[in-house]
Amino acid sequence: MRFSCIVFDIDGTLIDSSPDVAAALNSVLVSRGRSPLAVDRVRALWQDQLRSLLRAAFRSTGESLSDPAINEALADFRAAWTSRIGSDALLADDAPLHLRRLVDGGARLCVLTNRSEHVTVSLLERFGLADYFEFVLPGGHDSARKPDPAGLSELMTHCGVSDAETLLVGATQLDLKTARHGGVKCAMLASFRPRAELVAMGADYTLSDLASLVPLALGSESTGQFRLPPRP
Question: 61 with 34: CB under 8 angstroms?
Fold first, then answer.
């Protein structure tokens, strides 16, 4: 086995909440006289924090909002998203099948995300993924948020594995920075983002789909399914 511990980001990697977030965001924009944004535009603007996404959305549809106005809009945004978590979210192709293959092959699976515990648990349970993961470390936990590697280190300690045995799987620069800071290999998973965009990030591996992760993690010979771009 090449990697005995696989640490997944969830939202944007195994599950894409962009449709739900776009619907919630657009309800806030329209209520304030702005034009709605397409899901692809929301996905491109959304890096991590909802506040940052909200600011970017208002900038792209007109004048920026003051801090008090952003605070008020953010409360409405969070309420709108909470009411529909997972309603229109997308699951990576055959995710349960491939997670099961990894577990059956001896890999230990964990989740490391900056999403809140409520969002994380809701998404995992809605799509039937919770039982595949030994440890789930959401945002709001005592550990620092990504890209701080403290949470990653905590999961590795729980699993009793070294950095060489650990692979972090994500889809953003935040995940790549976390892996680099934590001294582990990183795979970018192109389930919901253009593969060329992820290749350009310079991670250790760029995977076209979740099926490609299985031979990579378990050390089989099917290396043609993924690409190893040069390290930066």
Answer: yes
Distances from the Cα of 178 to the Cα of 71, 76, 194, 199, angstroms: 28, 30, 21, 17
Q: Is the pTM of this model over 0.70?
A: yes
Collapsing DSSP to helix, strand or coil, 6 comes out as: strand
* φ/ψ (deg, to 5) at 127: -100, 10
Q: Which two tokens stand for residue 27?
A: 């309800």
pLDDT tens-digit map of 19-54: 999 999 999 999 999 999 999 999 888 877 889 999
Q: Which residues contact 153 (CB under 8 A, 6 or more apart)?
A: 182
Task: Determine the 3-state secondary structure of 77 from DSSP.
Answer: helix
Span 5-16+89-227 CATH architecture: 3-Layer(aba) Sandwich (3.40)
Residue type, 134: E
Closest by CA to 110, choosing from 182, 158, 46, is 158
Domain boundaries defined on the chain:
5-16+89-227, 18-82
In the CATH hierarchy, which top-level class contains the domain 18-82? mainly alpha
Token pair belonging to 199: 């290749």
Residue listed under structure tokens 């582990």: 184
Axis crossing angle, helix 50-60 with helix 18-31, rounded to the nearest 10: 50
- Measured CA to CA, the distance from residue 110 to residue 192 in angstroms comes to 20
Q: What's the CA gap between 54 and 59, in Å, rounded?
A: 9
